[in-house]
Specification:
GO cellular component, one term: cell outer membrane
Membrane topology: Multi-pass membrane protein
Low-confidence stretches: 1-13, 98-102, 231-236
Subcellular location: Cell outer membrane
Organism: Rhodohalobacter mucosus
Family: Belongs to the TonB-dependent receptor family.
Number of helices: 10
Distance between the termini: 26 Å
Strand content: over 45%
Structural class: mainly beta
Length: 984
């Protein structure tokens, strides 16, 4: 491929053709795609004269007679300047740049070359991140790492992603991986803008994560932010300016299928004289814009990068979104002849949040389609019905907003007093605060009317301190044996406090929730309607001592071992300290035989133990309550358990990393088993020994088997075209081996009318995630009730959900909430200056309970005046009674084009002011192929319960109850993004 701009005929005639071959200096292999540029051609001719080498490494270029130097470059090799000196044949040998070829992977407390990794570790750099309207940094990784599941079901901009690594690791707290940002353990991922992330390394198995002890049981995600580097600065102190920005438009991908006004009237619904599309009214095209400006540069001893990010994000639900400003700075200074390196990282984030009300989406589905939005006098129309509210009035009358702030900094020092010895220290502080306010005026039927106005305030502050220091020494101890020894100390301390206030009976609506002090509930003394909760944790401390040994023998056999001894104030005095060992070994067996097609075949085996701490404090201690009744009494609410200890996970991982055909085909295969023991759960205990009747104990065990596969293939290479394709695949199965109850039903369907319907069965010795219920026969009784199948053949039907676990009940597993396997397929195509990236994703084998259908599909003549009806091709004629069964459990397999990006890189070689200009367009959720009739077939990995119109839904998710598609889910969006990246 030759390139040039503005060449005239006279210039072209005064040239000499130069040909040759570009090869690897180490093995003599040709290098296709190397860039050859005539130095000074831009100034001499007004354009850059250049070409690229062909598949056999050959090239041909016309060089002006007055120019004499070729600049030859290739990724992973040292750029050369070659003098022509009158020659017409110039062969070029490029030396590998060892610093670039030795891919470095961030691991706990240090880095390793990729070839030395013996654990299950995956790395994703900026080039492989998901593109488009990404407001949650976790979404950069969705579908990119085998075994890592990142979902933001529905796409609510104010809801964080659910992250699972290799499935479920506990039934308590810490179900998501530990986040480490620039060495700061437990850092807030929301405080780093996606535009500022350089790369992410994922420690998947226990042998890699054990160095983090109790914090690493659910895996570890190591985030490295962008830094300045010495290439961005020079002795004159030049700087670089980068701008990244985009505008996106989010549109509702699917609406719930409901009756039109005409269909509703024909089905017997009450005609109120209007035609209203409520789902259309409460949704919108959410236009967002994001801007990131970064300045980087430096001099010989100091480099820096400072960035500012602004996000104005709007969701598809009216009045939902946020405005955020984030600033981040990194400064690195070298001193003492480069033996001392000091690094400062600092960032701050402020996010102003409009939560709106997801209930507006729910009631837009079921509200009467013939009802007007307002009466003629301008007041909102409102039917006096149970669980039935004007959807537009919900978000226009009421207020639900908040603010989050975060500040964090860390100072790192690395001192190399002698050769091969490095001493490191890291001190960090992180401050998080959030405040939220809700207000429901006395005119609002939704939560306000019955309380004569209702106001809520919520405040929370968190202060985190980290100090860590460690030293590493590496040397060649005997012939062909290299070793690195690391040892260190870690101190972590957290303090958290919060306050919640709820009161009603407000004399005015003018002051919104700021007038909560005027509440009549407080002034007149109505304690039943006053909710007040305040808390402060003790100073939670974790102290740890850790060490690691990395050994390389003959540059082909690798061994790693680590040990962490850790103590926590959250546990009983008898069990505050725990030990977490790990080891792994690997070898590249391709070194022992000579097969041209195989460039790498590394086998890995790892074993590691990690722990998990409880979420709340004081679970090992006595808990007392106080009552003012009878002159004041104190009673024990929970008994202490001084023997309470860690949850513990033991994991074994066997893996293979391979590279074939000169690494055109690379990949990894991992199989693993993990045992999670000693869940921390509150259980009932005998009152003759424990007066309160309740105590936290270690009770429970999970076992998971899994397999992961990842492969990348450079499928096509030519002068102008490059195509890389990659697949990630993972599957796992989790069995509950021990639990406090042998068998139980969980996850209530909710009101109206199905409050006693639990849908998820959990049983010892069986897989978790079972959707459990009666089987619909396909027939309907004359009274409109469903006919179920007599599963046990005893001649009687016992299908009431309250008897779901009875021996003679007619129930079975109707599906499961966790998929059998997930799949991601990435395609990257480059053609000249064009880039095309298409990412497909799918999940298979899971089911979902379609709760909209379970409530609103049967056409009940008595209730049709109250609620609109969902209509699907699964509806059964004549069915008028809603009762949970297999009818509403649907297979939810899907394949979707998750993200497709088309980009163009402008040639700016002749424009001195610019380093790069890249424009792109991205379409997210382009299409979905599925038979699921609901809005979104994505797996639901946890359950927060049915909608509570009191508004206080539990913040704790039930991770054992998967597969329920609730009625309070945000609508999924399809998003079109236009972006621009400019480098000055």
């Amino acid at each position: 491929m030759a390139f040039g701009i503005g060449l005239n005929e006279a210039q072209a005639q005064n040239r000499v053709e130069v040909t040759g071959t570009v090869i690897d200096a180490t093995d003599g292999e040709p290098l296709p795609g190397a860039t050859i540029i005539v130095q000074g051609s831009s100034e001499a001719t007004g354009s850059t004269i250049g070409t690229t080498s062909l598949m056999d490494g050959t090239y041909s270029i016309n060089v002006p007679e007055n120019l004499n130097v070729l600049v030859v470059s290739f990724i992973g090799y040292i750029t050369q300047e070659v003098e022509i000196n009158g020659r017409t044949t110039v062969d070029i040998e490029l030396e590998p740049d060892i610093r670039q070829l030795a891919d470095v992977v961030v691991v706990g407390y240090g880095t390793q070359e990729e070839r030395e990794i013996t654990s299950a570790v995956a790395s994703v750099d900026e080039e492989r991140f998901n593109q488009g309207n990404v407001n949650d940094s976790a979404q950069l990784l969705q579908g990119k790492v085998a075994g890592l599941n990142v979902t933001n079901r529905g796409g609510n901009p104010n809801a964080g992603s659910t992250i699972r690594l290799r499935g479920l690791s506990t039934v308590g707290a810490n179900t998501e991986p530990l986040i480490v940002i620039d060495g700061v353990i437990g850092a807030d991922l929301a405080n780093v803008d996606p535009s500022d992330i350089q790369s992410v390394d994922v420690l998947k198995d226990g042998s890699a994560a054990a160095i983090y002890g109790t914090r690493g049981s659910s895996g570890v995600i190591l985030v490295t932010t962008k830094k300045g580097n010495y290439d961005t600065g020079d002795p004159e102190g030049n700087i670089r300016l980068d701008y990244n920005g985009y505008v996106s438009a989010a549109m509702v991908e699917n609406q719930q299928p409901v009756m039109s006004a005409t269909e509703y009237i024909e089905a017997g619904g009450n005609d109120l004289g209007s035609v209203t599309d409520w789902q259309d009214l409460v949704t919108r095209t959410g236009v967002s814009n994001v801007h990131n400006i970064a300045v980087s540069g430096g001099t010989g001893n100091t480099i820096y990068r400072v960035s500012t990010n602004f996000r104005d994000v709007n969701g598809v639900l009216e009045q939902s979104g946020f405005r955020q400003i984030n600033a981040r700075a990194n400064i690195t200074h070298n001193a003492l002849d480069d033996r001392l390196t000091l690094t400062l990282n600092a960032s701050t984030t402020r996010r102003d949040i409009d939560n709106s009300f997801e209930e507006a989406l729910r009631y837009a589905v079921l509200y009467n389609p013939t009802a007007p939005v307002r009466f003629d006098n301008g007041e909102f129309f409102q039917a006096i019905l149970f669980d039935n509210f004007n959807p537009v009035a919900i978000y226009e009358q009421n207020v639900n907003e908040g603010q989050r702030k975060a500040i964090n900094y860390n100072v790192q020092a690395q001192f190399d007093p002698i050769e091969n010895l490095s001493i490191n220290a890291n001190i960090a502080r992180q401050f998080n605060s959030q405040s939220f306010g809700e207000f429901y005026p006395s005119t609002s039927f939704f939560r306000g009317l019955n309380r004569n106005g209702l106001a809520r305030r919520y405040f929370e502050d968190r202060d985190f301190t980290l100090f860590e220091t460690y030293a590493s020494y590496n040397d060649t101890f005997i012939d062909r044996l290299d070793a690195t020894i690391t040892g260190g100390y870690s101190f972590q301390e957290t303090f958290q406090e919060g306050l919640t206030i709820e009161m009603g009976n407000l004399p005015t609506n003018v002051q919104s929730y700021y007038g909560i002090d005027l509440s009549g509930d407080r002034v007149l003394g109505n304690p039943a309607n006053v909710f007040l909760d305040s808390y402060a944790t003790p100073d939670e401390r974790i102290i740890a001592f850790f060490g690691r040994l990395n050994v390389t023998y003959d540059n082909g056999i690798f061994f790693n071992a680590s040990f962490r001894r850790e103590g926590s104030t959250k546990l009983g005095p008898e069990n505050q300290w725990g030990s977490f060992p790990a080891f792994s070994i690997g070898t590249d067996i391709s070194r022992f035989f000579d097969i041209d097609a195989i460039t790498q075949m590394k086998i890995r085996l790892g074993y590691g133990v990690t722990g998990a701490l409880p979420g709340p404090n004081g679970l090992a201690q006595d808990l007392y309550t106080y009552s003012f009744a009878g002159g004041g009494t104190v009673s024990k609410a929970r008994d202490a358990n001084p023997d309470l200890k860690w949850e513990e996970k033991t994991e074994i991982n066997l893996g293979v990393d391979f590279g074939l055909f000169e690494d055109r085909l690379t990949g990894a295969l991992d199989v693993y088993t993990r045992d999670i023991d000693d869940f921390i759960l509150e259980i009932a205990v005998p009152t003759d020994q424990f007066p309160s009747g309740t105590q936290f104990q270690n009770a429970g065990r999970l076992r998971t088997y899994g397999l992961e596969f990842q492969v990348n293939y450079d499928a096509y290479q030519s002068q102008n075209v490059f195509w890389n394709t990659g697949i990630v695949f993972d599957t796992y199965s989790t069995e509950l081996e021990e639990f406090i109850i042998d068998e139980q039903m969980r996850a209530n369907l909710g009101s109206p009318g199905q409050n006693a319907t639990n849908m998820i069965r959990v049983a010892v010795g069986e897989q978790i995630g079972q959707i459990w219920g009666p089987v619909f026969s396909g027939e309907v009784n004359p009274d409109g009730t469903p006919v179920f199948v007599d599963l046990n053949g005893d001649g009687q039907l016992i299908t009431d959900q309250g008897n779901a676990l009875s021996e003679n009940g007619d129930f079975k597993q109707l599906g499961k909430g966790f998929p059998d396997f997930t799949l991601g397929w990435t395609n990257q195509v480059n053609y000249k200056n064009w880039e095309l990236n298409a990412f497909f994703r799918g999940a298979f084998g899971h089911s979902l309970v379609n709760t909209y259908r379970a409530f609103y599909e049967p056409i009940d003549p008595g209730a049709i005046n109250s609620y609109n009806r969902v209509i699907t091709d699964k509806a059964v004629e004549g069915l008028t009674v809603s009762q949970f069964s297999s009818l509403y459990v649907e297979k939810a397999d899907f394949v979707k084009l998750d993200n497709v990006t088309l980009a163009y890189n402008f040639d700016v070689s002749s424009i001195e002011a610019f380093r790069r200009i890249r424009a792109y367009v991205t379409l997210e959720n382009a299409f979905t192929i599925t038979n699921y009739t609901g809005i979104d077939p994505e797996p639901v990995l946890q359950d927060r319960g049915s909608t509570d119109n009191g508004g206080r839904i539990s913040p704790f998710a039930d991770v054992l109850s998967a597969g329920i598609d609730r009625r309070n889910n945000y609508f999924t969006a399809r998003t079109l993004t236009f972006g621009l990246n400019i480098g000055f």
